[in-house]
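can u pls check wat happens w/ pyridoxal-5'-phosphate
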Amino acid sequence: MSQSDNSTIAKSNQTKRWQEMDAAHHLHPFTTHHELAKHGARVITRAKGVYIWDSEGNRLIDGMAGLWCVQVGYGREELAEAGYKALKELPFYNSFFQTTHPYAAELSQKLSEVTPKGIDRFFFANSGSEGNDSAVKIIRYYWNLKKQPKKKIIISRNKGYHGVTLASASLSGISAMHPQADLPLPGFVHIACPYWYGDGGDMTPEDFGLKTARALEEKILELGAENIAAFVAEPVQGAGGLIIPPSTYWAEINRICKKYDVLLHIDEVICGFGRTGKWFGSDTYGIEPDMINMAKGLSSGYQPIAAVGLGTRIGDVLFNSDEEWSHGFTYSGHPVACAVALANLEVMQKEHLVEKAGGATGAYFQKKLAELSDHPLVGETRSVGMLGAIELVKDKKTRERFDPALEVGYRCRLHCFANGLVMRAIGDTMVLSPPLVISESEIDELFGLARRCIDLIARDLGKQ
Ligand SMILES: *Cc1c(COP(=O)(O)O)cnc(C)c1O
């Protein structure tokens, strides 16, 4: 579908020049390029607070915090100053071969304070994907050191998203990501996820939560516990459609992992840093991880940085090994990225952003989201902390979906763009993840626009 709001707005010559350069030379992530070339990319030139501006001067409220990451909002002087200071003082040094610097040392200490109980040692990477790739190597190395080299299979879930590098994309269970690169790699196995609205049928959410958790046990028994290294999952699945687990799910997963001696690696790249109303999704759901991966909100996206946090069990084995660990990136613990992440965490603490997401602001966001459920197109709304989803359906009662060829979600997103709102579409599920600093009046504005855009897509469908 080539329909786009971008083609309907007047374009300056400068915008056109950027679009032409871009279309000729820039290979974009997750983009259909011939579509993009037809109408040109929207050029985003600046941002402040919860708003972004394009090169034509249009202002949009960013309901996605960039890509689920700008917790503290855009344009924060504290973060910019911290980065500038580090750039002048120590623009680069590595942490290979027994060196460190104040920024990496202080950030690891800080992370040990805010991450879930037991997570105390940190390896730095530059993206969520690198973090998960590193985690897979750590899991394999752990079982090798433990002299159980057969324990190598990693189980993750359908609709899980863990990034795009070879191992991370193999962990991911969004099936469209696999065929282009002949994935998953051997040893990566996927099970059902707890998507109650989509797959729960007549079951209660609680029963469905138990059933999907026990799919892990079934898979372990099928393949043999002696062959299973780890289970990898997000507390709330993000890019797969904002799937919030039923209340019964995580306690059962904890139990199963312990029973079969399967490591639990929790991907906190979206859920970390206040998104679900506590510091980490593991805190919100009582998950007992052996290790976690974090990125996005760690620096509010101001700098590329990720961290893999190790619990005592894995940490002790790695720290006590007497051979060199053969892994690490040139930019692991980059001083500028660490400095900015530290400033970000200071802002989050000073402004009590986690408490806000878990308290009044989160509650207000959830209430306004729930008000959309009276709309004839809205089958369900669901939320936790500052994460929200809206299911657009053909029939509210039967949960019947629209014909995918209608591209209802995609067209709704285009209406949002044209009307000053960034709201993401995952199929026909609209998702929201605004900056944690958003105010109540900005939340009102966001949901006013969201309702208007759902009305617009309803009108389009009525005409068809
Ligand atoms: C975004 C994301 C990743 C990948 O992070 P990148 O920085 O894009 O590599 C991994 N896991 C989850 C849960 C994510 O949302």
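Residues 440-463 form the longest helix (24 residues).
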